[in-house]
Amino acid sequence: MHKWKKFSVTMSAIAAFTAMSFNISGTSFSATTDYKFDFGGGGVQSGYIGTSASTAYSKSLGYGFNTPANMKNVTASGTGAASDAVQFLTYGTKSTNTFNVDLSNGLYEVKVTLGNTSRASVAAEGVFQIINMTGNNAVDKFQIPITDGQLNLLITEGKAGTAFTLSALEIKKLSDNPATNRTIYIGGDSTVCNYYPLDTSVQAGWGQMLPKYVSTDHFQIRNMASGGQIARGFRDDGQFEAIMKYLKPGDYFIIQLGINDTNAKNNTTEAQFKEIMRDMVVKAKATGATVVLSTPQGRATDFNVSNVHTAVGRWYRASTMALAKEENVQLLDLNVLSSTYFTSIGPDATLALYMSGDTLHPNRAGATQLARIVYESLKLPIGSPTPTNTSTKAPTNTPLLTKAPSNTPTSTAKTLVEDINGDRVVNMADVIMLARNFNAQVTDSTRSCDLNSDGVINMSDVIKVALKFNTSM
Predict the structure, then answer these.
(1) Which residue among the candidates 215, 251, 333, 361 is catalytic per the annotation?
(2) What's the domain range around 345?
(3) Which residues form the Dockerin domain (predicted)?
(4) Cβ of 251: how many Cβ atoms within 10 Å?
């Protein structure tokens, strides 16, 4: 190629990249795939897009509230982006009072920071995404597929009568493919659910601690359990609906209920409990996912005179076991498995795994042990090392893998580093990948765009692609 022609192609590629990338002057954006929003009427944290309650969605802006009249600026007790927030005055999973963000279709990770609130849930695309985040400035994240070009999110119940607030939102694109990663969905009650802060809470549910054993590189875990839940409530009040929206072949759905169903105030007979559970099992099986019925663990004090822990008569266990057999789904008899473990460590050590003065709810160490038992029973194909620094560790004979085996031979063929997408030609597709990640922090998923390995995706990387433009292998 003549020098002048190559120069022309180079400049054309740079011009095309520039046209895609730089209409982001603060009020609108198009090419980037990562966004950070700081909500409220106060100052704006560096690197975030300031968004007040009065910011109305428009196509030219690309984000904003659908009904600003139903939003309110409020203060919050955190720092930086968490020092103020917006409050959703109307709410509900089907509410149109949403914060909307235009996004290209694909799979996204959404990180949510609440403002000051007692207990609130996150809904998006018409269903729950996170259940019952508790405490001021609670933080959590979830994966969500976008297939209609827009994220529609709001903060909702939660606990009735409290403020549902949002301080910050971070959105990161994971893939152009909107299909969710393999997922373990969990249904349950207060012995299973998440407590906040997730990494330091004294009380915990075993669903919260399961990521210590299951590699989130291969499974995402969506814990939809909530305190006080019964089978009817889980099925009818939105949690099961949220799971069914995304449940697919290759996923797991583990459901453990029964503790609260046995309470007379909830008016659920054992026969009713079994049929409600059956309804969910049948519908979940029809998606091709693996359904697992789990029996709840007993109380810390369920030791007999021989110091054997046994709770086989509790929590409608017999009906759960019968249902698993009738519907031919996997049974996880956590009731008996945990009792075996509790017997091995004795009454005092067992009591130390529960909340002080509470023989029903596990503390963080107890939930970790229950999560270990769940993991070993499931025999998932991929795991991570058994966590250290737990107050009571049990031996395990189950090998926990840290890396998936690969059947793909390592290629020794010559490659072009500028061929970012690996199609053996440097073309506009590679320029587009750079545009999408321009100025983004380099991660494992975007490292191929950092051509000169300086830790940032910038114009020097664009120039390297431009100089090899239309080169093929």
Answers:
(1) 361
(2) 181-405
(3) 413-473
(4) 23
361 noted as active-site residue? yes
DSSP 391-404: SS-----S---SS-
Asked if 190 is an active-site residue, the reply is yes
In a domain, 473, yes or no: no
> Length of the chain in residues, anyone?
473
Predicted confidence pLDDT, tens digits, the chain (473 residues): 444 444 344 445 455 444 444 333 344 444 467 999 999 999 999 999 999 999 999 999 999 999 999 999 999 999 999 999 999 999 999 999 999 999 999 999 999 999 999 999 999 999 999 999 999 999 999 999 999 999 999 999 988 888 999 999 999 999 999 999 999 999 999 999 999 999 999 999 999 999 999 988 889 999 999 999 999 999 999 999 999 999 999 999 999 999 999 998 999 999 999 999 999 999 999 999 999 999 999 999 999 999 999 999 999 999 999 999 999 999 999 999 999 999 999 999 999 999 999 999 999 999 999 999 999 999 876 544 444 333 333 333 332 222 232 333 333 333 577 777 666 677 766 666 666 666 665 665 567 777 777 777 777 777 776 677 667 65
450 is catalytic: no
Provide CB contacts within 8 A for 398, sequence distance 6+: 375, 376, 379, 383
List the CATH number of the domain containing 63: 2.60.120.430
52, 190, 339, 448: the catalytic one is: 190
Among 148, 176, 217, 358, which one carries the catalytic annotation? 358
For 411, the token pair is: 């290629």
Asked if residue 472 belongs to a domain, the reply is: no
